[in-house]
């Protein structure tokens, strides 16, 4: 439900890949805290509509835009639509991503390329568009901005697999490892423009991407062995961290990766001394 904490009142937030999973939770969370949200989907219009309905029926404001983040024209059109409807952009949650799993020996160039296109090139295109928009807004501002606070925020969706190697998923791990350096480098470059760039790295979060694991009792038991906190994460666990990184409460946080993983990156196999 919208309110009572309207921390993002009048802010415009684009969340890519927000028809399901973590992206959906982010879109709903921002809307509930007063933001005007641009929901984005590529293939599932029906789910996108459901997110739009949920936000609007809760009293929030949102639009739904189809765009394939790996296509430059689509990304430009996504931002143009956001600006035409809401006049500006304040936050980008660059979330859209996918897995195309295969053993390395069997992996096709197509599987490799698709994951790199969406998870890495897609984030490049969206972040570049957001940064250009933030700079343009600042240049076109009617009044001089005396605030010390950042003029635009970008949150990239990474994964624990930006540091944990993942056999059988080398395309995905390579894309997320790439996101880490991409994020840090653009953060360094954009900071003088007062644009903040950070990543979140979720561990196992209960979403469609890993349903095959959490819906099978044996596999789920195995998964919990990898999580010291002994529970799978929820999309809302991630949305709350994304919101904090997007808010002025984290204004001095820049170029960081926040792990939201119940301790998955703590080498749980060593808990009993190996
Ligand atoms: C992957 C999930 C996986 C999790 C922890 C995520 O980035 O998308 O499939 O469960 O990492 O391994």
Summarize the structure in words.
This protein has 274 residues and is an alpha/beta fold. The chain has a single domain, classed as 3-Layer(aba) Sandwich (Rossmann fold), CATH 3.40.50. Helix 4 links the parallel strand 4 and strand 5. Helix 3 packs parallel to helix 4. The longest helix has 32 residues. It starts with 11 loop residues before the first strand and ends in a 14-residue tail after the last strand. The model has no long low-confidence stretch (mean pLDDT 97). Bound molecules: beta-D-glucopyranose. The site of beta-D-glucopyranose (BGC) has 9 residues, from loops. Beta-D-glucopyranose binds next to loops.
Distance between the termini: 46 Å
Structural class by sheet pairing and helices: alpha/beta
CATH level-1 class: Alpha Beta
**Uncertain parts:** none
Beta-strand segment tally: 7
Helicity range: 40-55%
Query: What can be said about the biggest beta sheet?
Result: 7 strands, parallel
Secondary structure layout plus pairing:
Blueprint: E1 12-15, H1 21-32, E2 36-41, H2 45-57, E3 61-66, H3 72-86, E4 91-94, H4 109-140, E5 152-157, H5 170-190, E6 195-202, H6 211-214, H7 217-224, H8 235-246, E7 257-260
Parallel strand pairs: 1-2, 1-4, 2-3, 4-5, 5-6, 6-7
Helix pairs in contact: 1-8, 3-4, 4-5
What would a concise description of this structure say?
With 274 residues, the chain is α/β, with parallel strands linked by helices. The protein contains eight helices and seven strands; from the N terminus they run E-H-E-H-E-H-E-H-E-H-E-H-H-H-E.
């Amino acid at each position: 439900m919208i309110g009572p904490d309207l921390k993002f009142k009048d802010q415009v937030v684009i969340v890519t890949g927000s028809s399901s999973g973590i992206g959906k939770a982010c879109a709903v969370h921002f809307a509930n805290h007063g933001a005007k949200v641009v929901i984005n989907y590529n293939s599932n219009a029906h789910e996108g509509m459901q997110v739009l309905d949920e936000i609007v029926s809760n009293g929030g404001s949102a639009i739904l835009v189809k765009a394939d983040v790996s296509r430059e024209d689509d990304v430009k059109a996504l931002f143009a639509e956001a600006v035409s409807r809401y006049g500006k952009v304040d936050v980008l949650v660059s979330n859209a991503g996918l897995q195309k799993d295969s053993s390395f020996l069997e992996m096709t160039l197509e599987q490799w390329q698709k994951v790199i296109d969406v998870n890495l090139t897609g984030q490049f295109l969206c972040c570049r568009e957001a940064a250009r928009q933030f700079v343009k807004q600042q240049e076109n501002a009617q009044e001089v901005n005396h605030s010390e606070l950042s003029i635009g925020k970008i949150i990239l969706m990474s994964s624990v697999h930006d540091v944990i190697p993942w056999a059988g998923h080398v395309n995905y791990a390579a894309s997320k490892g790439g996101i880490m350096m991409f994020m840090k480098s653009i953060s360094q470059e954009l900071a003088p423009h007062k644009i903040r760039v950070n990543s979140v790295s979720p561990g196992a979060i209960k979403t469609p991407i890993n349903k095959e694991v959490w819906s099978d009792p044996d596999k789920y038991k195995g998964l919990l062995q990898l999580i010291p906190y002994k529970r799978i994460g929820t999309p809302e666990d991630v949305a709350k961290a994304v919101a904090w990184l997007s808010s002025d409460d984290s204004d001095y946080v820049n170029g960081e990766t926040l792990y939201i993983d119940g301790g998955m990156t703590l080498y749980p196999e060593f808990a009993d001394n190996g």
